[in-house]
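Example 5.3 — Arc/MetJ family transcription regulator
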Amino acid sequence: MIFKDVREGRPYPEHHLTTKDWSRIPPRQVRLETLVTTTTVLKLDRLLSSDSTFYGDLFPHAVLWRGELYLEDGIHRALRAALQQRTVLHARVLELDALR
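Solution (predicted structure tokens):
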């Protein structure tokens, strides 16, 4: 199994972080097997695109909430890492538990 779980929707409260706010969070290594996805849909064209991060953050965004690590943005990057036989990727992790 690539991810810990695949779900639809975000179970955590809205955090209201902007792109600039996310950029202040340093990326860290995250094991793919610890991630819970927040979408069940993957657009194949985004997965196969060589410039899929051209207009966005280079790092996926994850939220730590109640002990679970939810992949909020970057499912295509995480799946691409798995297809390349990697077990970890660098992601920006918002520790929402610590903010509440």
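Remark. The two ends are 32 Å apart (CA to CA).
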